[in-house]
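User: Second chain of the day. Same drill as before.
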Amino acid sequence: MDRYQWTVLFAAWLGWGFDVFDGLLFNYVSSNCIPTLLGLPIGSKEAGAATLQYTGIGTSLLLVGWAVGGIIFGKVCDRIGRTRTLMLTMAMYAFGTALCAVAPNITFLFVCRAIASLGIGGEWAAGASMVAEVVPEKRRVEAGAILYTSAPMGLFLATYATYWIQGVAFVGRPEVAWRYVFLCGLIPAAVAFVVRMFVKEPERWQKSTAAAAPAISELFTPRWRATTLSGLAMALVALVSWWSCNAFISTIAGGLARVDAAALKLQGTDVTAHVQVWGKFATNLFNIGGLIGTLLTIPLAKRMGRKKMYAIYFLLSGLSLLGTFGLDLAPHDLLYGYFFIGLTVFGVFGSFTYYLPELFPTRLRATGSGFCYNAGRIIAAVGPFLVGHVATLGADSLPTAMRALFWIGAVPLAGLLLLPWAIETKGRVLED
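Assistant: Same format as last time:
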């Protein structure tokens, strides 16, 4: 790859990394943000139940907005270009996230999250299509997987930004700290304008602009129906599993930390610091596992093919979820399970940045990839909502939430049944 191809990959890498960074900030501050906006004492039993419920609702709303934005901007991307769409969506999710910092109530917060989610959903298709069309054919898998490594890096950044703001700079002031965390969402806006200065539209897309404008309905014509359903099915299984797990990492880690803090007889700010440390530990394990799992898709996809790769990831995803939330483990030992969940549930997403663009021709690539990757989020939105709702029904929300996540392990195992209909793209040349 030459210097410009690396520049394009880096630009898309930044776009997706900050996309994930902005998208997940809410989950990291929800235990302080939601009680503050609802007027509940932070750390109380009522606040814990409300946090689980509203985190589920907020995450589900994010996924619906993400899906809508991904479908709309996927089509826009095929019409106005990859670079323009990338810049537009990054600016949109940056300002939407930053506005959350001044939210006076939960409704305003969710409206701002909805604005951000439209941009978050639209960025992926632009970045993935741009990289697939610019890099050499023989490096498409590696470039796609490297592009997705920005997701765990974005989560690392979100984890440490949250930790340093809530756990260090504003420790003892949790009702204020979360607002400064949301302000960090402005960073991608500056990056978006820098990207526009160095990246031009791919030649493949410029040559295809003379063709008829893409329509979403075309994805379900006899020519593309099987292809669309293949991409949608693989993404749907992964999305339901990932979002059901990730939405509650901070909540579950915090609940386990409070159990441990009670056993150690900690009080006041010591409990807050304990919760922040355990939350950082759990998310770091999840992210490290996701980073390794993302890179492992490269040798598996190139040597075994895409279908066998998905079979391995779906099987191990199910086992990691069932083991983590089904075994009788000590509170801190349970957190180590998040490494294996990250390795599998998170790691499989390293494949979609090259698998979905491989399925469609240039004029339909962003539309098709954006639809497959994002339409499933509407169904995936049910996962966080149900986990959060079920958790509020039990007398003790923590074990109830863990039981709900245990049953989420059945989702990737059920995904194995869809593999006979998945389309293999190993060795396929990108279609113009």
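The longest helix spans residues 3-38.

User: Great, on to the next one.
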